[in-house]
């Protein structure tokens, strides 16, 4: 069985967030234990499985995502990776849209003229909450504000500045004890996105890092779904609907966000780096 690894939200190989993707031929998924076992074997932040839905009125493919330890309700980068492979296989052409039936409802991806991909995800509902006790000790820096994200299931913590975010030294066990399975830390960019960095890459409006040790991910390299919460937060703060986010992991990755009310568009690049055969099958 063919299995491919795609670096999502990546401008070049070995950056962004790698996802393994299996496009299944049949009209259903193998048993869950097998899907989880393969995801654990690969040990990437997510492994995505998709199968076609011929004749279905609401969606074109069914899609599921697994971390090394559990199935998750929503994953942006592995959805982007799946759309990239559909494009490479001639199943998603420029200007077209593909719909995925998922545990979070129907999500879609479209292919842009510049070969980037745009995901259409629900915007997270943000509620300001007190900074949880122990957050500073868990992260190695004090947060200045906190938000609950409702059904997204993430805790967003704002830090004082970008430099503090880059220098975090989180303690995984303490992060796992915070009142959310996924902790997103964020800060405003040190310089405006209109300025270009010394490397020649585009600038950014805000930065983030994401930690999910209770889901088998001490730090996630680039988290598309987190940007459905970061987009309304920073668009409201900066007064612009379209922003560039930089996730400041070791691999780094950029996500362009466009806020459209209850929907958030996530745009980025993806690069296939591995094409292999799963010899044990599913």
UniProtKB/TrEMBL annotation:
Entries under SUPFAM superfamilies matching the protein: Diaminopimelate epimerase-like (SSF54506)
InterPro entries: Phenazine_PhzF-like
Superkingdom classification of source: Bacteria
Chain positions covered by the region annotation Disordered: 193-224
Segments of skewed composition (Basic and acidic residues): 193-207
Segments passing through the bilayer: none
UniProt keyword list: Isomerase
UniProt similarity note: Belongs to the PhzF family.
The protein's name in its UniProt record: PhzF family phenazine biosynthesis protein
Organism: Streptomyces spirodelae
């Amino acid at each position: 069985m063919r299995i491919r690894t795609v670096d999502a939200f990546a401008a070049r190989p070995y950056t962004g967030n790698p996802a393994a993707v299996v496009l299944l031929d049949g009209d259903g998924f193998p048993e869950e234990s097998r899907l989880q076992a393969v995801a654990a074997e690969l040990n990437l932040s997510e492994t995505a499985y998709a199968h076609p839905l011929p004749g279905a009125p609401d969606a074109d493919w069914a899609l599921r995502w697994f971390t090394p330890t559990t199935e998750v309700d929503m994953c942006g980068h592995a959805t982007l990776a799946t759309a990239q492979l559909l494009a490479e296989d001639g199943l998603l052409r420029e200007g077209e849209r593909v719909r995925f039936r998922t545990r979070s409802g129907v999500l879609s991806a479209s292919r842009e003229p510049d070969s980037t991909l745009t995901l259409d995800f629900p915007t997270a509902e943000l509620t300001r909450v007190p900074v949880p006790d122990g957050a500073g000790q868990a992260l190695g820096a004090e947060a200045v504000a906190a938000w609950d994200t409702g059904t997204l299931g993430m805790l967003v913590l704002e830090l004082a500045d970008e430099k503090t975010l880059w220098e975090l030294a989180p303690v995984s066990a303490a992060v796992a004890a915070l009142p959310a399975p996924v902790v997103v830390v964020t800060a405003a960019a040190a310089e405006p996105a209109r300025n270009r960095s010394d490397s020649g890459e585009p600038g950014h409006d805000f930065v983030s890092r994401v930690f999910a040790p209770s889901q088998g991910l001490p730090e996630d390299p680039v988290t598309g779904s987190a940007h459905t919460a970061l987009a309304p937060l920073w668009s409201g703060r900066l007064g612009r609907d379209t922003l560039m986010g930089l996730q400041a992991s070791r691999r780094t990755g950029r996500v362009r966000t466009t806020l459209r009310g209850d929907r958030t568009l996530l745009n980025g690049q993806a690069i296939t780096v591995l094409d292999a055969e799963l010899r044990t099958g599913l």
